[in-house]
């Protein structure tokens, strides 16, 4: 088995627009982490049913 080691990796330089886009994306991620989530009042207990593709309520079961 051969192992190839790359010792001379070139780093890509980013344009100003790419750097600005990365900074904006990081700012959006940080803001999303800080934003409080709304609590569901009188909602169903347990796992989120729609996440798993099934929904049951009052004896009615449907697949999305």
UniProtKB/TrEMBL annotation:
Recorded family membership: Belongs to the SDHAF4 family.
Organism: hydrothermal vent metagenome
Protein's name in the database: DUF1674 domain-containing protein
InterPro entries named in the record: SDHF4 (IPR012875)
């Amino acid at each position: 088995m051969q192992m190839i080691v790359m010792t001379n990796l070139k780093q890509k330089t980013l344009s100003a627009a790419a750097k600005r886009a990365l900074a904006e994306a990081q700012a959006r991620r940080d803001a999303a982490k800080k934003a409080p989530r709304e609590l569901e009042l009188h909602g169903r207990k347990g796992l989120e049913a729609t996440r798993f593709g099934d929904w049951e309520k009052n004896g009615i079961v449907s697949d999305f």
